[in-house]
UniProtKB/TrEMBL annotation:
Gene Ontology terms describing biological process: mitotic sister chromatid cohesion
Protein keywords: Acyltransferase, Transferase
Protein's UniProt name: N-acetyltransferase domain-containing protein
Any one Pfam family match given in the protein's UniProt record, by short name: Acetyltransf_1
N-acetyltransferase domain mapped to chain residues: 40-197
Biased composition (Basic and acidic residues): 8-19
Keyword Cytoplasm among record annotations: no
InterPro entries registered for this protein in UniProt: Acyl_CoA_acyltransferase, GNAT_dom, N-term/lysine_N-AcTrnsfr
Gene3D superfamilies (UniProt xref): 3.40.630.30
Biological source species: Diversispora epigaea
Cellular component, GO, one term: NatA complex
Amino acid sequence: MGVPTKEPTIETKAVEDTKSIGNTNSPKTKKKRLTTTHRISLGDVTPNNLGQLKRLNSVLFPVNYSEKFYKDVLEVGEFAKLAYFNDACVGAVCCRKEPIQGTIPEQTKLYIMTLGVLAPYRNLGLGTTLLTHILHHATCGTPTAPKFIEIFLHVQTSNEEALAFYQKYGFEIIGTVEGYYKKITPPDAYILSKKLVKNI
């Protein structure tokens, strides 16, 4: 496994109660609290770990992404990240920049192409860490990327879990694309959008 470019580590604690059996008045039947610390970190996508991203996407999404997809991912800097849980690569986000033609000065949207976490590691804060990282950098801008006016994505109309997740962070349904997906049912997708600049 390639060594990720580490960012500040987020630590989460899981507490497990071991229930005793027998006389609840006995001192020996007290609950034991076992505390473990989980480390969540993000890493850059590089040529050395691109194979990890390909393997993740093959498990997470029913789509075969082209070599151009992966070439473009290497060019977007902070807008493509791998997520690590205790140093195991378990999730990723990939975005692309979409200039709006005809705007002066040129304005840019950010499109979330993929964001996913392996099933055993969901509901542990990894998806939130990935999305908040993207929102932060899309809002504040970076030396190589201007401030984006909007961030958007497509979500399958039946994917209630994903819809709830994005709506929690201020995304709104602004349209529906019939037949967006070619190999999955239902094939329709919602367009979800979050405005990052007011009055547009």
